[in-house]
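Hi R.,

Here's the chain you asked about this morning:
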Amino acid sequence: MLQPKIKLTSEEMKYMALFESITGATTQDCIIDEKLERIIFVAKQGDMGLAIGKGGKNINTLRRMTSRQIEVVEYADTPEALIKNSLAPARLKEIRVTERPDKKIVVVENVQRWLDEGQSPRDAAFRAMNDVEFPVQQVLDGIDAAAAAGLPVKDNAVVKRGANDEGIVGLAEHFRGSGHTLRFKRMTGKLEHSG
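And here is the predicted structure, written out as tokens:
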């Protein structure tokens, strides 16, 4: 079966050229999401480190230059692997792709609930582990505000295998070069809530 050719608009090509000049990474596709005011770049396999940059520097530069949120997904050869990369750091139970003559149907287990509720997988894991009703970004904003006020900041991140362990690298990259002390703590035993 022939793979469909990607047809890019001049605006998409402009953003791809900007992405490559800022990051040094190769991009294979670009999706401009007007509704969520974001640009999603599909980076060549193995180029994620270049694309993100030290401490997220490249992503932040692109955000400032485009006035949009920036997301980067690592390319993969199969639809299942590309979907997994798109939903990282979520752990997925199963991805099934069914091909029909006129379309492909994709079923993703264990993530659909979060998407239906308008939560990112990262926020859903955070809320489940902490029994709170606010997103991770609110915590990160509070940390930034404390640092801006001159308070010494020590950040403790609780890591639980199978719940949020895939987000360790992203969290470390977020705080790299910030002057904050980031400590990882491993959650052991059962967590009980007396509410």
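One quick note: Residues 6-75 form a domain with the GMP Synthetase; Chain A, domain 3 fold (CATH 3.30.300.20).

Cheers,
M.
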